[in-house]
Amino acid sequence: MSLQGKRIVVGLGGGIAAFKAVELVRELMRRGAEVRVVMTDAARRFVGPITFAGLTGKPPVTDLWAEDYAGEVHVELGEWADAVVIAPATMNLMARAANGHADDVVLATLACAKGQVFFAPAMHSRMWSHPAMQRNAEALTRSGAVLLGPVIGPLASGEIGLGRMMEPVEIADGVETHLAHAKDLEGVRLLISAGPTHEDLDPVRFIGNRSSGRMGYAIAAQALRRGAEVTIVSGPVHIPPPSGAEVVQVWSARQMHEAIMSRFDAFDVVVMAAAVADYRPHRRAGQKIKKGENLQIELVRNPDILADLGAKRAQRPAVLVGFALETENLEQAAREKLVKKAADLIVANEAGAGLGGDTNRAVLVEAGSSTPLPQMSKRALADQILDRIRVLLHQAAHRQGREAERDAPN
Ligand code: C5P
């Protein structure tokens, strides 16, 4: 674990947990980072700037108006930093950051940050669960920031709840992990399908499934963060897409098939995370079906998008990833799918482990290996999947290189 050579701004908001920022600065420096500290007025009420001056060898920046900065200190720091870590991130500070305020040195530095931004929220659990806080947290995440915590534990009030700031070592771990991944997918073009498909019965009814789109959107968000170009072909979902992705909205499996088949050759990686309906009603009634006796609906097979891509042989994307949701014999079924659909990786989920929720448990099945992973957030799982995709891309590039060599005229 190392942050050797990384330049990190630690920004403090005014909360009790500010004293832990001292430990965070030390921890980041112990791992090799160069650290500068910026503080709000409120933060200075909790911990003295002199402590940070002693630790980092540089006085923290506490005032946008200080006369000893000739230029614009927030621009300079925003440019300098590989990462800006806000700890503690109070409800107020996060609300203001989410809305683009820039009237103190911490907010102005955030506004200018070129590197990855992290927030370590610290507040009472009722503040954390407040709808405004949740909206702001979501907006910050969507704009590319990473939230580290909060965690459940003793709060300043003496109660136990969700809102406690992560421990400094865990914050440093989170920063390190993210920076290690930073931009390792630069130049990779990724097409991902997400969400359910809806198969119309008539103008108002459809057959659908419980897929929320969260897993596919999490992969898209992490891939964007890691530098990839991302297009999402999305079925009907109720979550906002990550900023920076191109989004193609579709409704049915046939529309998804068309959207993907007409685009895939411009991409290096295709991930089929969508829960594509296997069947659709044979006929879509032109008018709302009237109530009557029991109704029989004839279903016909939809095209299998993943299998069609796999069958493209020479023109297929360099890496093809599918998902498998099973209620029994998970790994065996995934392995059969890997072969039948000619995919490079199948992410196998136990039914119930992930559908609709925020966490997931999966086994990553490839030709030569199976990797069972513990239950984790969809974001963490997305990174694990992307780590494998990166390896598969390297292998594909090697293979192509060897083939080109073999085919080249002597
Ligand atoms: O065969 P099964 O539906 O379990 O396979 C799941 C995988 O195949 C998923 O990656 C899913 O997105 C993809 N799929 C597809 N077209 C279908 C059905 C599934 O691309 N019609």
Largest sheet: 8 strands, mixed
Output the CATH class name of the largest domain: Alpha Beta
Mean pLDDT: 92
* Chemical compounds bound to the protein: cytidine-5'-monophosphate
Q: What's the N-to-C terminus distance?
A: 47 Å
Number of domains: 2
In short:
The chain has 410 residues and is α/β, with parallel strands linked by helices.
List the SSEs and their pairings.
Layout (H helix, E strand, L loop, with lengths): L6 E6 L5 H13 L3 E6 L1 H6 L2 H8 L16 H8 L2 E7 L1 H8 L6 H8 L3 E6 L3 H5 L1 H12 L3 E2 L3 E4 L5 E5 L3 H14 L7 E6 L4 E2 L5 E2 L6 H12 L3 E6 L11 E4 L3 H9 L7 E4 L6 E3 L17 E3 L3 H6 L8 E8 L3 H11 L4 E6 L8 E2 L1 E4 L4 E3 L3 E2 H30 L3
Parallel strand pairs: 1-2, 1-3, 3-4, 4-5, 8-11, 8-13, 11-12, 13-16, 16-17
Antiparallel strand pairs: 6-7, 9-10, 14-15, 17-19, 18-21, 19-20
Helix pairs in contact: 1-3, 1-9, 4-6, 5-8, 10-14
Bound molecules: cytidine-5'-monophosphate (C5P).
